Structure formats: C-alpha cells, structure tokens
C-alpha cells in the first residue's frame, strides 16, 4: 500500500512540476549591441555561461564553405591573454566543462562551472570575442583537425554523407544547400586573410547573445558583464539577403553510393517552414507520430509487425529559414527499399485522409509535455533554450510558452499540414546504396 501511495505522490508531483514550470529571466542590450539574458536559480551551486553567434553555414561564401564550423574549432586556439592549449586546462582547473557546436544558422559556445567560477566563464567568453588570435599556426592546426573530423564522420562513416546529399537536392538557391562541415578543398585553399575577414564580420557583439544562467546574483553579474564585455567595440551591421527557394513540384530522385555500407537505405525528405512558424510545430508532431522512436507508427508497423525493416528513423532538421522532415529506413532480409517506401507512403496517406485517434493524440501531447520539461531540466539546457529562442525564433519567452503551441494544435490541423507538405511530388527521394550496386 505504501508503495502505491508513494507512486501516486510522485506522479502528482511530476504533473505539478510539468504545469507550474516557469523560467524567470531578464534581458537587455549593452551599448555595443550584445544582447544579454540572465536567469537566476540559486537552488544548486552551478552556473552556465554561453554565447551564441548568429552565424552558421548559411552565412558562408559558396566558394568558401565550412568556415563557421572551422571557427567552432579555431576560437579555442587561444587569445592574447590565453596561450594555445590552455583553454581546456583553465576550465577543468576550476571543475568546469565546456563545448561548442555549429549548425546552419548559429554557432554556440558554452561552459558550465561551480558558481564561484562565474567570473572565469565571463572572462573566457569575452576573450574569445575581443582578443582571438587568428594566426597561421592555429589555422594550420585546425585544418588538420577538421579534415580528420570529416574523414571520420562523413567520408568513412556508414551513411555519413546523407545529410549533405539531401541538402544539395532540397535546395538549389539557398545556402542551406551545402553541409555544415563544408568543403575540405575550400578550407585547404583559404588564406589567413579569409579567416580574419570572416571573424571580423560575424564574431562581433551585435551579432551575439550572452546567456548567464544558474546560481548568480543578478546585480553583481551585470556589473561583471559590463566590465568584461562593455569595452568590446560594436561591429559593422551584418547585411543578410533573404533567398527564396522555388517550390519542388516534381519528385527529385537522387542516388548515392557508399563503400562503407552493406545495407541500402531509402530517405524521403520534405521541405517545410522555418522553425519559428506554427506549421513547423505541426510538422514536428507529425514526425514524432510517424517515425520518432520505437513507439512510432512506422517503427511498430515495419519493424515489429511486418518485420520488413531493420530500422526506421526520422531526422527533423529545424532551421531558421526552412526546415525539413526526413524519414527513412533500412530493409531486412529479402525486402527492398521500395517495400519500405510503399509502407511509408501508406502511413502518410492515412494521416492525410483521416484524423489520428484521440488516444494517439493524447500520447503525442504527453510526449511533448515530457520533452518540454526535460529540455529545461538543467541549467545548461535552460541557457541553450534561452539563446535559441531569442536568436532563431525572436521570442525568448518561448522557454515558458512553447508548450502552449503544441497543446493548441488539433488533430484536424495535423491532417491539413500533412496534406500540404508531405506530398510525393514535393519531396526528395534518396536511395543510399552500397558501392557495389553502382554497376547495376
């Protein structure tokens, strides 16, 4: 009896947290254009300092791709006040951890420390912004690092090139058409001046957001931020051109051969609205319903029941200007990629022609409620959400209200958006084949 009572209490508590969760934050701008977001939570002695720059692969010259990802590495090389190789040592010496990542629209650097090392984090990120050393030694070192990363993650990794192949078929005009890691030829041939110019253009305070989240005193933190970031000069305003893709009106078929695989794969990719648009949230729910995990419709049908697929997977690519929904699978035994495509099409047709069940709809809602809580269950997760919502969705408070968008989406809306975007003639069909099939 006590066991069931405890379970009930925990269940009630979790729902109370689910619906009462509120992230309190403050945001303001420095004179140099740096946007600052502060979130004070003194429940644990931990703090995250992070800077997101509004620069990703889409901001690159088509003849000089891979620069944003290259800078993810290069800006750990050191500064005028931090010697080469010392960055990670400084972070670890005070019990912290740090990392960075790059995508189509942004680059993100962050550190998480015991809160008594907040000033160290602010100093590090201000140094990265104000005093980076873009030198030949660092450039040459990181060229080797990035080349090895491409070999291990793309060129020599099973199915590693699918992202690049899909992008170049989904987009013909927009700079999303090349992969984030870029061309190794472009990186190899780039000059030191090329890298310096890229840094001077994009890594400026008026193209960035600083987030400090965790065990802080807001007033003292503001004072430190002013001391470390206030003197950094504002950069030139960045001019961006909005590039509109022509709609896909006929199915685009692509084939890629990979010597690293033995099992073929089929990938179906649909171009969808930018991540801030309401319809992008609906597509997110469709993706989850159809192909996210072992409880999804496609996995249960093709893997568990019919046993024609070894795996079913989805790759939602959410980005600022356009997003895309990618669904695919690997056949098992004598089954073919055509068999998998037929089954996927049947399930998509079903969601386009009839409402999903009330039971499935409630299951979807529960899953998104859970995802919402988990995304903001850590200080580092909160920092990331605050930065992305401000920079890529133009609404920092989505950290508190985004779940309301999912709650408001109806079964009818799911059906209509599926009809609108998941059309056979509006997609890319990529057959990803073992290399020995090339002669067939």
TrEMBL record:
All copies of the Peptidase M16 N-terminal domain together span 36-176
Domain (Peptidase M16 C-terminal): residue spans on this chain: 190-367
* Gene3D superfamilies the UniProt entry points to: Metalloenzyme, LuxS/M16 peptidase-like
Fetch the InterPro entries from UniProt. Metalloenz_LuxS/M16 (IPR011249), Pept_M16_N (IPR011765), Peptidase_M16 (IPR050626), Peptidase_M16_C (IPR007863)
Checking Pfam families in the record gives: Peptidase_M16, Peptidase_M16_C
Q: Which UniProt keywords apply?
A: Hydrolase, Metalloprotease, Protease, Signal, Zinc
Q: Which family does it belong to?
A: Belongs to the peptidase M16 family.
This chain's protein is named Insulinase family protein
Q: What is the lineage of its organism?
A: Bacteria, Pseudomonadati, Bacteroidota, Flavobacteriia, Flavobacteriales
């Amino acid at each position: 009896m006590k066991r069931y009572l405890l379970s009930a209490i925990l269940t009630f508590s979790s729902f109370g947290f689910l619906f009462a969760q509120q992230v309190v934050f403050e945001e303001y701008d420095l004179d140099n254009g740096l946007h600052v977001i502060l979130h004070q939570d003194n429940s644990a002695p931990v703090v995250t300092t992070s800077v997101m720059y509004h620069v990703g692969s889409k901001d690159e010259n088509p003849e000089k791709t891979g620069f944003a990802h290259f800078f993810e590495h290069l800006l750990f090389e050191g500064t005028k006040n931090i010697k080469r190789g010392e960055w990670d040592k400084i972070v670890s010496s005070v019990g912290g951890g740090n990392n960075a990542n790059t995508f189509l629209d942004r680059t993100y650097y962050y550190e998480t420390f015991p809160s008594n090392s907040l000033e160290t984090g602010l100093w590090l990120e201000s140094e990265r912004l104000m005093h980076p050393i873009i030198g030949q030694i660092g450039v040459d070192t990181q060229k080797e690092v990035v080349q090895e990363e491409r070999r291990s993650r793309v060129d020599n990794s099973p199915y590693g090139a699918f992202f690049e192949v899909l992008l170049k078929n989904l987009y013909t005009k927009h700079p999303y058409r090349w992969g984030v890691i870029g061309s190794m030829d472009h990186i190899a041939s780039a000059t030191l001046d090329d890298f310096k110019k890229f840094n001077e253009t994009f890594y400026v305070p008026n193209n960035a957001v600083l987030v400090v989240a965790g065990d802080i005193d807001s007033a003292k933190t503001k004072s430190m931020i002013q001391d470390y970031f206030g003197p950094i000069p504002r950069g030139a305003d960045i001019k961006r051109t909005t590039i509109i893709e022509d709609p896909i009106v006929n199915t685009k078929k692509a084939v890629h051969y990979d010597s690293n695989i033995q099992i073929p794969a089929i990938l179906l990719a649909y171009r969808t609205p930018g991540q801030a648009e309401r319809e992008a949230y609906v597509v997110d729910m469709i993706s989850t319903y159809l192909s996210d995990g072992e409880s999804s419709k496609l996995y249960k049908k093709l893997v568990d029941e019919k046993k024609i697929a070894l795996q079913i997977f989805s790759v939602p690519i959410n980005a600022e200007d356009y997003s895309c929904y990618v669904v695919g699978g690997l056949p098992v035994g004598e089954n073919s990629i055509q068999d998998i495509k037929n089954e996927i099409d049947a399930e998509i047709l079903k969601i386009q022609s009839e409402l999903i069940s009330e039971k499935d709809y409630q299951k979807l809602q529960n899953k998104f409620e859970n995802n919402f809580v988990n995304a903001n269950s850590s200080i580092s997760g909160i920092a990331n959400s605050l930065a992305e919502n401000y920079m890529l969705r133009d609404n920092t408070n989505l950290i508190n209200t985004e779940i309301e968008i999912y709650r408001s989406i109806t079964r009818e809306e799911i059906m209509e958006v599926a009809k609108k975007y998941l059309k056979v003639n509006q997609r890319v069909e990529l057959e990803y084949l073992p290399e020995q099939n090339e002669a067939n």
